[in-house]
Amino acid sequence: MTENQLHFTLNSNRLSKAQINQLVDELVNYPELIENLLQEVFDEDKKDSFNASWTFDHLMRKKLVYLLPHFESFTRGLAGLTSESTIRPMAHVCEMSMEAYFKTKDPVFVQNITPEQLERILTICFDWFIGEHKVAPKVFSMSSLYYLGFKFDWVHPELKMILEQQAHEGTAAYKSRASKTLSKLRKLGF
């Protein structure tokens, strides 16, 4: 696959789930196209499309390590996102990255993600968590913030306070994740 083929595939029409899966299966063999795919994500945000972001999310589910050489661009581009269709999959990629860094302590992630990059994820996840967004980005951000609280000691008390104030206002999915997160925070002594 070439950069032009990728661009054409992502921009020709809306892709079905089967087409996304097929594209992801092909992209697994072309890690050199990740930078182009990430740029397509940032470009499509302005068009309110989601082929690239959906593809990116599904590819990262298979090969999250492919993100690391582009983690700086990834974290710098997050703050400029405005479309819910793009924010949702990028919030999920943040959550997967924070799980790799904090939960599984994958050495490749721990050694290659800088404190500045973690701070950018922290900032955008708080924005998504407390902003006017749909439930999925909020839930993914909640999980990322929980993990980031192990590096930034002020996060867990702040997260707990927000959850206690807002947990009753969310959807069933939000309330469920909030309850689980609050339980984890209480076990940590917060």
Helix content, binned percent: over 70%
What portion of the residues fall into strands of 2 or more residues?
A: under 5%
Sheet having the most strands: none
Please give the radius of gyration in angstroms: 17 Å
Q: Note the gap between the termini.
A: 50 Å
Low-pLDDT parts are none
Mean pLDDT: 95
What is the overall silhouette? Answer: globular
Number of strands: 0
Structural class computed from helices and strand pairing: mainly alpha
Tally of helical segments = 11
How many separate structural domains? 1
**N-to-C series of helices and strands:** HHHHHHHHHHH
List keywords for this structure.
single chain; 190 residues; globular
Give a written overview of the molecule.
With 190 residues, this protein is mainly alpha-helical. It has one domain. The protein contains 11 helices and no strands. It is globular and about 50 Å long.
Provide a brief overview of the structure.
The chain is an all-alpha fold and 190 residues long.
What is the secondary structure topology, with strand pairs?
Elements: H1 3-12, H2 17-27, H3 34-44, H4 51-62, H5 71-78, H6 84-103, H7 107-112, H8 115-130, H9 135-148, H10 155-166, H11 172-187
